[in-house]
Amino acid sequence: MHTPENEALRRDAADPGHRHLFHIPPADGGRHPDTAYLAGNSLGLQPRATRDELLADLDAWSRLGVEGHLESERPWLPYHELLTAPAARLVGALPAETVVMNSLTVNLHLLMVSFYRPAGERTRIVIEDSAFPSDSYAVRSQARFHGLDPDTTVVRLKPRPGSDTLGTQDVLDFLAREGHTVALLMLGGVNYLTGELMDIPAITAAGRAAGAVVGWDLAHAAGNVPLSLHDWDVDFAAWCSYKYLNSGPGALGGVFVHERHLGDPSIPRFEGWWSTEAATRFEMTPVSRPPATVEAWQISNPPIFAMGPVRTSLELFDSVGMPALRERSLRLTAWLEQLLDEVTPGRPLTVVTPRDPARRGCQLSVRIGVGSANELTKRLRHEHGVVADAREPDIVRFAPVPLYSTYHDCWRVAEALAATFDKEGS
Question: Are 413 and 398 in contact (CB under 8 A)?
């Protein structure tokens, strides 16, 4: 290492972030007491406020029983509405366009029921070749559901030869050539593998100009980068909240549907009790009267104890603000990149994430030239107390999350990589 440890500590003193608001796991190795946790792109850390907030909701159940639906401090019947406004602010949407419900892939399927409507020659679904496997499974099953061959219906866009990432121009060129065959364009806003941030507004505009519906999987974008879904004219989007939104394993996801689609009776949807107007819900009538909001896409009553951690997290994001988080993210990620530039030469390590800060979130992905990604992350954890995320066979992902990661965490990553590969080569 060329950069001294005290430089990292100096930066932390000047730019401390909000680490005090989170539980930091103890280190499982190395000389530092706390983990250098760089895996928030896989599972975010627990906010300190979550436990007490969740216990308060549990206490309401013990005290009130069924009456908690209307009489608890946070009544359960309209509980999901507490999450709507902060979720909308987080993704740049109107409250009527935003709802927290279900999990990510369930929501993508519900949205594709409405917005993947193959007809004539316009039948294809376009995703990136490095899409998260669940997205690949989902779109292939949607193609089969419509009686189509997934091998020909699903188009997987690949980076041009010599590139690790799919560029915006690659997508635009494909749409210019073959957009007339595309029914649905559904890409990841930030690629889970490489950390690349796609140009969402440019791709959305091109997709819609080509006559396709444009949806986005924002699992790695929500809470990571600023979003303006309404202004960007996105048709629909879905995201999870257990990564950058720190709402716990398997936490509820979110859905966006642009207001131009709201209240349109021609759009097919699956419906259930929570799809009807709240004022008519207890009339127990057999025919739904859906509201002219995205809540028409809800099906079941929300799980209150799963919503509590999401609400707590969204309040935290509201108090700090995405602009401030993005600014710190840019500083922190640039620092990690600088440190990696010091340790990668002469070692079998290559950063594959775009170097342009505007083309990435806070994740930097490193390709290793020897050994397996899983084995490396085990060594980093048990020998150095550094927690990162492996994607086999050869990608290790480091995410300095601006809410709780530190410059010293980044310094420890670089120190651990250098020590591990120097030991490997000795």
Answer: yes
